[in-house]
Design brief:
By secondary structure, the chain is mainly alpha-helical. 82% of the residues lie in helices and 0% in strands. It has 5 helices and no strands. The longest helix has 62 residues. The radius of gyration is 33 Å and the shape is rod-shaped.
């Protein structure tokens, strides 16, 4: 912390006092060192320490509790995802099988294309990974090109 002032002054803001007490704590309550760093008298540091230390400690406790809650929430989310990931995969596989059953005898390639698009979109939503999405997009593009080529071949017959 930089010096609060170059010369001693008679009044300090509450924020300046709290900063000085935090520095005092960082300095392992070395009042002489903190007084030299801040330009605040040792007696003022003693008074401010008595006045603000509990507030600083309480703020630190609240921050620790908030961090703990955040970690617990992350654990709960991770556990939920891990627990339900297998079920989501099962449902996805079932949906793909049903879609394949629906289109295996379909002669209209546009309907097949739309079904593939729905499946591709479904997997895109399940995946949050950008690379996976790009790979799926490339696969979808290849499938679309194949369908267009098949359409062109069937029209030329």
């Amino acid at each position: 912390m930089k010096k609060l002032t170059k010369k001693k002054k008679n009044s300090y803001t509450e924020e300046e006092k709290i900063q000085a007490v935090r520095l005092l704590k960082e300095n392992n309550f070395n009042h002489y060192l903190t007084a030299a760093q801040t330009g605040v008298s040792i007696s003022s540091l003693h008074n401010w320490s008595a006045r603000y230390m509990s507030d600083i400690d309480n703020t630190n406790k609240v921050q620790i509790i908030a961090e703990s809650v955040e970690l617990n929430l992350a654990r709960v989310k991770t556990n939920f995802i891990n627990k339900h990931y297998a079920k989501m995969n099962e449902l996805a596989e079932e949906a793909v099988k049903k879609a394949i059953d629906l289109v295996k005898d379909e002669t209209d390639l546009n309907k097949v294309n739309n079904t593939i698009k729905v499946i591709s979109d479904f997997f895109g939503k399940m995946s949050n990974d950008g690379e996976e999405g790009e790979k799926k997009g490339d696969s979808y593009s290849l499938i679309q090109q194949t369908i267009i080529a098949c359409n062109n071949m069937s029209e030329s017959k």
